[in-house]
TrEMBL record:
GO terms for molecular function: hydroxymethylglutaryl-CoA lyase activity; metal ion binding. This is hydroxymethylglutaryl-CoA lyase. Residues 4-271 form the Pyruvate carboxyltransferase domain. Keywords: Lyase, Metal-binding. The lineage of its organism: Bacteria, Pseudomonadati, Pseudomonadota, Alphaproteobacteria, Rhodobacterales.
Length: 288
């Protein structure tokens, strides 16, 4: 049977945008529930500036508190060497660096140009290679940028190829504000695939306009077999105005099952985690 992996983003991409500070114990409880659902990779937190993203200030405590399940890799975002060293000290199993296909979003999210973001990645990657740490790479705003408008596919291909050349084991393509259409995602993938093979790519689609599942379908057609998703559709990016959450894990899992793909996930365990996740959301069942 054809297999597809869902990389669970809820605890990081999902929770980072919540205005109300979520208790560390609740973050740990969410990760522990997700650890029972059959994921092979869960993005737990970010080692970023707490001034930029206060919600992730307890990154080390969350990683220290979770019950690590066998066969699950626990990942963390790291924008620079300082974040990398903290993630390694907290025993993240892998890290992810993140940059942008547009200059406008790089500036808003990282206070850097694209080139400057790569200057920060170089020492991080050198240290990661020495440590044998796996590093994933994200390219944000792969079709539409909230600051610069439509993003040329060639710009995405250039940044994806740069991340691959730097040593990232996989490049995740982010439709950060969820404005991608099947046609624009397809054109973007066509350009990227000239430089990066499908086995090294993942789709990371936010569902702002409700087109994420269609965008996953065109990506499957193009040979992608890894998709990022967040349980209960939690989240968004605090530096991307108007961004909604990642496409909901439970919807992607059901959609893939219906199309005959095997994900290895337990729908009941995901449903329990989704129910809990909704209680953490300020506009959900939680009272904040
Ligand atoms: P900066 O202000 O340009 O840099 O931020 P700085 O070096 O002047 O640092 C500012 C302060 O942060 C300093 O503290 C540093 O020490 C501290 P101060 O001296 O003022 O007290 N600092 C750190 N603290 C903890 N951990 C660190 C760290 N580095 C510096 N690693 C910086 C530059 C990159 C740090 C900042 O812009 C930042 O943290 N940005 C992250 C923003 C972010 O997390 N965005 C959301 C995640 S990305 C996303 O959601 C997209 C994605 O899902 C894909 C998609 O959907 O497209 C991945
Ligand atoms: Mg995202």
């Amino acid at each position: 049977m054809n297999s597809v992996e869902i990389f669970e983003m809820g605890p990081r991409d999902g929770l980072q945008n919540e205005k109300r500070l979520i208790a560390t114990a609740d973050k740990i409880a969410l990760v522990d529930m997700l650890s029972q659902a059959g994921f092979r990779r869960i993005e737990v937190t970010s080692f970023v500036s707490p001034k930029w993203v206060p919600q992730m200030a307890d990154a080390a405590e969350v990683l220290a508190g979770i019950h690590r399940a066998q066969g699950v890799r626990y990942a963390a975002l790291t924008p620079n060497l300082r974040g990398y060293e903290a993630a390694r000290a907290a025993q993240a199993d892998e890290v992810a660096i993140f940059t942008s296909a547009s200059e406008g979003f790089a500036r808003a999210n990282l206070n850097a140009s694209i080139d400057e973001s790569f200057e920060r990645f170089a020492p991080l990657m050198a240290q990661a290679q020495q440590d044998g740490m796996r590093v994933r790479g994200y390219v944000s705003v792969v079709t539409d940028c909230p600051f610069d408008g439509p993003v040329p596919p060639a710009d995405v291909a250039r940044v994806a190829e740069r991340l691959l050349a730097l040593g990232c084991y996989e490049i995740s393509l982010g439709d950060t504000i969820g404005q991608g259409r099947p046609e624009s995602v397809d054109a973007m993938l066509a350009a990227v695939l000239d430089h990066v093979p499908a086995e090294r790519l993942a789709g990371h689609y936010h569902d702002t306009a409700g087109r994420a599942l269609q965008n996953i379908d065109v990506s499957l057609e193009r040979g992608l077999r890894v998709f990022d998703a967040a349980v209960a559709g939690l989240g968004g990016c605090p530096y991307a105005p108007g961004a909604a959450g990642n496409v909901a894990t439970e919807r992607v899992a059901a959609h893939l099952a219906q199309a005959g793909y095997h994900t290895g996930l337990d729908p009941a365990a995901i449903a329990r985690a989704a129910e809990f996740a909704r209680t953490l959301r300020s506009n959900g069942d939680g009272n904040a």
